[in-house]
Amino acid sequence: MLGQNDWKFEIDPIWGKQLNSEIRPNNAHALMFWQDRLVLATDHPDHNVIEYDYKGNVVDSWGKQWPGLHGLKGLVENNEMSLFLVDSGWVVNRRWDGESVDDWASPFNKMIAQAGSITKTTRSGQVIFSVGHPVTYGAYAAEMSFNPTDVVVLNNGEFYVIDGYGSDYILHFNRHGQFLKKFGQDGVHRINNGHGITMDERGDESLLLVSSRAEHSLMWYTLDGQYVKSLTLPGAFIHAPIFLDDHMLAPVCWTGERNRAEDNSGVICIFDEANTLVSVLGAELPLEGELLSGKGSPFCHCHGLECDDKGNIYLAQWNANGLHPQKLLRL
Predict the structure, then answer these.
(1) Cβ contact 147:165 at 8 Å
(2) What is the predicted pLDDT for the residue at 289?
(3) Does the chain have fewer CB atoms within 10 Å around its N or its C terminus?
């Protein structure tokens, strides 16, 4: 059993096992439900998107043009679903020497960075438009990197992108992909390794909610870019949450000190309507002032979440040996 208080779960031992499937993720990054499908964003070079049925069987896979696929959101327009695909630009190096994995400056490292992009597509993956490096529309200087990690889409088609592997700005675009403004790097409240962005609609005013992963924090902004508040959870390299009723469910990719993440760690944190931590799946609830630790967790780098109408959680894990999403049953 995982979790505490009223938020306890157990791992479904069968869902997503896919022992006979030749289709597997590389790093499993983001999840979303659409009708009877669970859709996964991955950076596997042969299939950037994998789709599962309600039993966890692979029923479709597609896409090779987004090799650094990291974020995924949907928008229904005129009864048709559109997808927003975020390619971070981090891709497998075709010149990899077969050994190097940590020297990011090496031309022979396994992963190398190129400029990322955001692409709006039809449900079946046909490109509607793409947005590239902000230097091309005057938002960045030439020396600034652009490696986006996630996107949130408003009902009117406008969208906000978090450049979490690049220059850490939030960039706001209209429904046609035209740049409007950027923010998130002003004053003392600066995003650091923004890893996920969503909308928090629990209050009187809808707010943007973004991860500042390197700071172990979540940060709230108004839609016009004004900083509102932060929530810090020491020890949690936290990603943007999903919402279940009035609670936030946030994946944590690592636990540990800010400059010393614990290897092969990762938990799911659940916060109540007052943003108080009430349950940790994969670890004990930390005492006040205590560092969260997920060492020994059954998870490996929790990266993306989705939930169904019964309150069950679906988990995507980064660097987890090609593991398919796991289903966590609400108890």
Answers:
(1) yes
(2) 81
(3) N
Q: What is the pTM of this model?
A: 0.96
Sign of CA dihedral 223, 229, 231, 234: positive
Mean pLDDT over residues 57-70, rounded? 96
Torsion of CA 133, 135, 139, 144, to 10 degrees: 80
CB 96 within 8 A of CB 108: yes
- Which residue, chain included where needed, has tokens 């981090």? 90
- Which residues make Cβ contacts (< 8 Å) with residue 116, sequence separation at least 6? 68, 70, 86, 87, 88, 89, 90, 146, 147, 148, 165, 166
Cβ pair 316, 31 in contact under 8 A = yes
- Interval 198-217: pLDDT, tens: 999 999 999 999 999 999 99
If one counts the domains in the chain, the total is: 1
| Contact between 209 and 194 (Cβ < 8 Å) | no
- Could you give the CA distance from residue 255 to residue 258 in angstroms, rounded to a whole number? 9
CATH number, residue 151: 2.120.10.30
Domain span at 217: 2-330
Average pLDDT over residues 148-160: 98
Give the distance from CA 120 to its chain's centroid. Answer: 17
180, amino acid identity:
L
295 or 153: which leads in pLDDT: 153
pLDDT > 70? residue 135: yes
Residue 105: pLDDT over 80? no
CA dist 111 and 308 (Å) reads 34
Q: What is the mean pLDDT of residues 35-56?
A: 95
Backbone phi, psi, residue 214, to 5°: -65, -20
CB contact at 8 A, 200 and 223: no
Is 53:18 a contact under the CB 8 Å cutoff? no
Query: CB of 71 within 8 A of CB of 149?
Result: yes
pLDDT classification of 318: cutoffs 50, 70, 90: very high
